[in-house]
Amino acid sequence: MLSLRQLSRQVPRGVARLISTAARQPLRTPAFAAARTAAHFSTSLIRRQDATTQELAAKLNSEIALEKEQQADDSYRYNCQEYIDNSEFKIEDKAGTEEVHLTRKYGDENIKVTFSIADFNTYDEEADAEDPALYGDEDGALDMDGQSGGANTKGAVNQGRTAGGNIRVAPEDEIAPADRPELQDEEDNSASFPVRLQVTVTREGKGALAIECLAQDGEISIENVYHFPTAELAEAKTAEKDWARRSLYTGPPFGQLDEDLQMLLERFLEERGINTQMA
């Protein structure tokens, strides 16, 4: 009886010590704890990206508005429509493409003129920058130093009453300003947009003649002339046709042809409506 009473007293004490000991012991951590990784995207980065996106969208909307404004220009539309109304050519313009085709019949010939509207946006400012007329001629520069003693020389203007009053004048200064050709054309000087033309003339069973031209400053000049056995090779719309076209010998360069032949080819185009009016 005494042993049971002592056992009942000892059990609660042992359980209490066991619970308090377990509470004081820290939880064991795993041997290989997963390392904390930093977030790849921060709030500031997202805000910067949003600002850039908004700025880009605003700029694109501005460019689109500018394109629509140019399309609505009645002067360009009127000039194109006036040419089509008074020409034998028919225009083929597909929405979403940059190539424009002008087609017509001339006897038994099928004529197609192809150009790209992208050429109208390729104004070369370097060509004007390299114009020698914009710079003074170092060799022929005006000598503004008066000659000692007032001696007269050829091409000099007597200023009078000065010891060194004779100033050498360039020959062009002897021409009245109103008679100078560069001043007469100054008002008509405008931006030049060279446009490349691909002219294809085909006849049934006679092959095709491909003529590469350049339209600039109201004139059309021939750059190269090629003859192909078929119209498919002349236009070469597939990679196979283009490869077969490159392997063919199509004749010497246009500049190496006889001058009379060059003139006849230019007249050949003019008679078919590929002339200054088209340019």
From TrEMBL:
<protein>
    <recommendedName>
        <fullName>Mitochondrial glyco protein</fullName>
    </recommendedName>
</protein>
<dbReference type="GO" id="GO:0042256">
    <property type="term" value="P:cytosolic ribosome assembly"/>
</dbReference>
<feature type="region of interest" description="Disordered">
    <location>
        <begin position="148"/>
        <end position="174"/>
    </location>
</feature>
<dbReference type="InterPro" id="IPR003428">
    <property type="entry name" value="MAM33"/>
</dbReference>
<dbReference type="InterPro" id="IPR036561">
    <property type="entry name" value="MAM33_sf"/>
</dbReference>
<dbReference type="Pfam" id="PF02330">
    <property type="entry name" value="MAM33"/>
</dbReference>
<dbReference type="GO" id="GO:0005759">
    <property type="term" value="C:mitochondrial matrix"/>
</dbReference>
